[in-house]
Amino acid sequence: MNFDDLMANRRSVNFFDPEKEVSEELLRKTIRTAAMTPSGFNLQPWSLMILRTPGDKERLKKVAWNQPKVTEAPVVLIVLADQEGWKEGHPFVEKVFNEMVKSGAMVEDQRQWFADARGSLYGESAEKQQAFACKNTGFFAMSLMLAAKSFGLETHPMDGFDLAGVRKEFNIPDNFWIPLLLAVGHVKDDFEPALPKWRKRVEDIVVTFD
Amino acid sequence: MNFDDLMANRRSVNFFDPEKEVSEELLRKTIRTAAMTPSGFNLQPWSLMILRTPGDKERLKKVAWNQPKVTEAPVVLIVLADQEGWKEGHPFVEKVFNEMVKSGAMVEDQRQWFADARGSLYGESAEKQQAFACKNTGFFAMSLMLAAKSFGLETHPMDGFDLAGVRKEFNIPDNFWIPLLLAVGHVKDDFEPALPKWRKRVEDIVVTFD
Prior knowledge:
With 210 residues, chain A is an alpha+beta fold. Chain A contains nine helices and four strands; from the N terminus they run H-H-E-H-H-E-H-H-H-E-H-E-H.
């Protein structure tokens, strides 16, 4: 499928068929494909919790506005954005720097420059930390939705949940924001795709300030 | 190209050929494709400024760490995330609600429910407003990069800029965060794509907290 068809055919699906499983293999392939997403300084500040059991999904549903799709979808992902994923000493920050040195993209002497750049761009204020975490994890989540669709899966990104409630229920550490939940599964056989929702035209998106 | 090949072949390109133009038609097609991106309550809180002239790109380069690609790329987009794109009375919020009523997805009586939901999810704190703006605009920017690649264009998402400086230089109103700049163009004929950078494995991405 061409990319523009993929974009045009993706829908946020409200009704999943609970009988149609998502294999572990297909889910891993989806995540592996989305893992190629770019990020600021390649820091990849995203993580996923995978919920599959009826018990876990019931626990989530109670803090997610009781949305039926939380338990109907075979898989629900809690998407996490690491607000500290830029800090010196963070294991993935160390890994990213070491890999850059290994590939020749940076040299060891740039360690302090790299730390200073991350600090000024991402760490200087709460608003910068949140932008870093949520923008990059937004990139990743979009890739996940498109990868899923390209492999025959449907998704629904959900904002309707109690963030503090989800954090507490699943023991999610404070450094993670929860930008969205993502239901993943298949539609029922009698599913009729809705027309696309209204979208801004190019003229609405492009702005000038004079 | 299959979606996984598209993901595997996209690179953040550092060297653009300034001689190879990006037609207005192709740029509009790219934006139109990315406009199908989903967003919380379909609010689409993203905008773009399009910079094409040497003068505009020079002005941007000065507040973007003097990165040569800012002037070498034929097009640079300033990607904007509207922190107020959830508020009652915002023109696109009104439009989205009216279109939902028109399509039968909501009824007129849900106006207050819709306003309350947006307020509690996106407006309750500075951190929620920032997450709303940057996550959704992150979705959109990822779609832009992939749409561009699918149409034969290359991109580079840039974080290396002075946000306050860009805001001032281009009269960008305070309600917009600037999550990234996006260089768009073509590579030079002798371009050799680098190997993909290191990426987290599925095992690195999936987390549990017990």
